[in-house]
Design brief:
The protein is of the alpha+beta class and 326 residues long. Among the domains are: 31 residues; 194 residues, Alpha-Beta Complex (Cathepsin B, Chain A). The chain is built from six helices and eleven strands. Strands 1, 4, 5, 8, 9, 10 and 11 form a seven-stranded antiparallel beta sheet that branches. It has a four-stranded mixed beta sheet with strand order 2-3-6-7, with no helix packed on it. A hairpin with a 4-residue loop joins strand 9 and strand 10. The radius of gyration is 66 Å and the shape is elongated. The N and C termini lie far apart (169 Å). 26% of the residues are buried.
C-alpha cells in the first residue's frame, strides 16, 4: 500500500510537471505568433509607402515619355490634339511677397488739371432800416380836454415813469377864468396856455369853456420828473422830429383833432401874450416813423395808427411846429 501511494504521487508529480511544460510552450507559441503578425503588418505598411513613392515618381517622370511614345505610334495624318499640360500637375499660384514696383514714368509730360475758378461771392449788405418804432404805451385821456396830459403820461411811461393823469394835471395849475368873446365867435382875451392850463378841463373847446396847455408846461414837468434830456419848442423842423423818432425818442406834438383844420386865430392873454389857437386844438405822441408816414399814439380814443407825413406836417404847422422830444 505504501508503495502504491508513492508511485501514485510520483506519477501525479510527473503529470503536473508535463502540464506546466506544455502551458509554457503554448504561451511561447502564442507570443511568437503575435510577434510574427506584427512583423508582417509592419513589412506590408512599409511596402505600401515605398510603392506609393515609386508610383508618384513614375507618374511624374515616366508619363511624359509614354505620351511621347504614343505620339510616335499614332498613324500619319492623324490630327494632333492640343497639349493640356502635364497630367496630374497642380497649378502653382505665386503669392507676391513685396508691393508692386512703381511703374516707370511715361515719356509724355503729365498735365495737371486746371482748377475751375469759382465765382467770388460778394456779400450783399443788408438794406438800411427805413421804419423805426418805439414801444410807447397807448393811453386814453381820462378827462375831456386833458389830451396834452395824457400824451405826456405816455412819454413818461416809455422811460419807466408812471403817473396818473390827475396827478400830472394838478401840476398844470388850471386858469379857470372864462374867455372874453367877440363877434363871429372869436376869442378876444383868455388865459395863457404857455404858463397854465386854460379853462375847464371838463368843458368844451368849441363853446369854448375849456382849452388846453402848451409845450413849456409839459416840458417843465417832464424834466422835473426825470427826463432831464427832454427838449422842445416851436418852429422845429420835421427832420428834427423824424431823427428823434429814429433814435428812440417819443415826441409829443400839437395838431388838430382828427387832423381837421377848422382854421386858426389869435387872442390876447390876460398877461398880454399873443396866443395862436384853434378850436380843434389837440396833442398826440408820435411813436414811429417810416419813409412816408408817422405812427401816432392818439389819447382821444386810446388808439395807435399811421398817418402820412404830409397830413401830419400840415396840421402841425397850424401850431407853429410845436413839440416836446422826450
Amino acid at each position: 500500500m505504501g508503495g502504491f501511494i508513492k508511485r501514485f504521487m510520483a506519477e501525479d508529480s510527473e503529470m503536473t510537471t508535463r502540464e506546466a511544460t506544455k502551458r509554457e510552450k503554448t504561451t511561447r507559441g502564442t507570443l511568437l505568433h503575435h510577434g510574427r503578425r506584427i512583423v508582417v503588418v509592419t513589412v506590408l505598411a512599409a511596402s505600401g509607402f515605398i510603392a506609393s513613392g515609386w508610383i508618384a515618381y513614375a507618374v511624374a517622370f515616366q508619363v511624359p515619355a509614354v505620351a511621347q511614345a504614343a505620339k510616335s505610334w499614332a498613324p500619319k495624318g492623324a490630327p494632333e490634339l492640343p497639349s493640356t499640360g502635364t497630367v496630374g500637375a497642380v497649378p502653382t499660384v505665386a503669392i507676391p511677397t513685396q508691393p508692386p514696383a512703381t511703374p516707370p514714368p511715361t515719356h509724355f509730360p503729365t498735365v495737371a488739371p486746371t482748377a475751375t475758378p469759382r465765382p467770388t461771392v460778394v456779400p450783399t449788405a443788408a438794406p438800411p432800416q427805413t421804419t423805426f418804432t418805439i414801444a410807447v404805451p397807448v393811453i386814453k385821456q381820462t378827462m375831456v380836454l386833458d389830451c396834452e396830459t395824457a400824451a405826456l403820461q405816455m412819454g413818461l411811461a416809455t422811460y419807466g415813469y408812471y403817473y396818473s393823469q390827475a396827478t400830472l394835471f394838478a401840476r398844470e395849475h388850471a386858469d379857470l377864468r372864462p374867455p372874453v368873446m367877440g363877434a363871429n365867435h372869436r376869442v378876444l382875451q383868455w388865459g395863457d396856455p404857455y404858463t397854465n392850463f386854460v379853462g375847464n378841463v371838463s368843458g368844451s373847446d368849441w363853446t369854448p369853456t375849456g382849452y388846453g396847455v402848451y409845450y413849456p408846461v409839459i416840458l417843465s414837468m417832464a424834466r422835473n420828473i426825470g427826463l432831464t434830456n427832454a427838449h422842445g419848442g416851436e418852429g422845429l423842423s420835421a427832420g428834427t422830429v423824424y431823427s428823434a423818432l429814429k433814435t428812440g425818442h417819443a415826441v409829443e406834438v400839437w395838431i388838430e383833432t382828427n387832423w381837421s383844420r377848422p382854421g386858426v386865430d389869435t387872442w390876447t392873454a390876460f398877461d398880454g401874450r399873443t396866443i395862436r389857437y384853434s378850436y380843434a386844438e389837440h396833442a398826440v405822441t408820435l411813436s414811429g416813423v417810416s419813409p412816408t408816414q408817422v405812427r401816432v399814439n392818439d389819447p382821444l380814443h386810446g388808439t395807435q395808427y399811421w398817418v402820412s407825413k404830409a397830413t401830419f406836417e400840415t396840421s402841425w404847422a397850424d401850431f407853429n411846429n410845436m413839440a416836446v422830444v422826450f
